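Each lists chain and fold; for instance:
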Amino acid sequence: MEHLQFARHRRLRHTANLRALVRETYLHIEDLIYPLFIAEGENIKTEVSSMPGVYNISLDLLEEELNELVSLGIKSVILFGVPNEKDEVGTGAYHDHGIVQKAIKLTKEKYPELVVVADTCLCEYTSHGHCGIVENGHVLNDPSLDLLARTAISQAKAGADIIAPSNMMDGFVAAIRYGLDEAGFEHIPIMSYAVKYSSAFYGPFRDAAQSAPSFGDRKTYQMDYANRLEAMREAESDIQEGADFLIVKPALSYLDIVRDVKNNFNVPVVAYNVSGEYSMVKAAALNGWINEKQIVMEMMTGMKRAGADLIITYFAKDIARWLQEN
């Protein structure tokens, strides 16, 4: 045995402090973006049945929620609207007094330094639940672009720091960039849902945002989960059209795509840790089957290791508390 030659990798794992010294990947509170669902009405704080710990919150209770987020050190939020009324063309999405526009204004008044990302889509506001104009059962691409640009402009007027279009229409980044620039918002960046797969992991979100399509599915505009090269084409198009961030959604089943995007494009990459990923962990934790903290921190570190610069996650408040404990 004394003549054997082999590497001693365990030397760097001998103590906790030594392991910390050589640790390659870290998760920081600044990496996290917390989703908020803002409902029309008053005195509303309704827990989403399929997402323990996540609530639909009315404007009058939003300040209380923001106080908690800021006290935890969370720097960024992404806002989704839950309107009372919907129509065929999603008027509430681009109305200057829409629920998200009001939430943006309130948030920036109370906490100007908080980074507010506005989800820019129509599905929460359309009666059919699709992300564009529908005609004869088909989602129309080009006629939808004008409404998406109008939505982005109204959100920028309200004070949004970042516009995050999630609709996956062809040309949506170009249309929104042009609209923002023409309206004097050249400084507002676009965080594009560049690589968004048609995924079963979105189910609980549709409960929260009340945005399930009333017919069919979204496979004609969201991507097939079997495809990898298509993701690079989608991301490249968005970069050429003016995207400043690239989102990959979902995260856990698409870490290879996160790494591909990171390797190929020199902009910040955002992993969206989606509702189904959140709900599975919460359900297992509530049943005592897993250690939630250990599982979540391993998941998040895996996303960072795969190449994510930022993570949109419903676990942000939990993670903030765990980081403070450490």
The two ends are 42 Å apart (CA to CA). The mean pLDDT is 92.
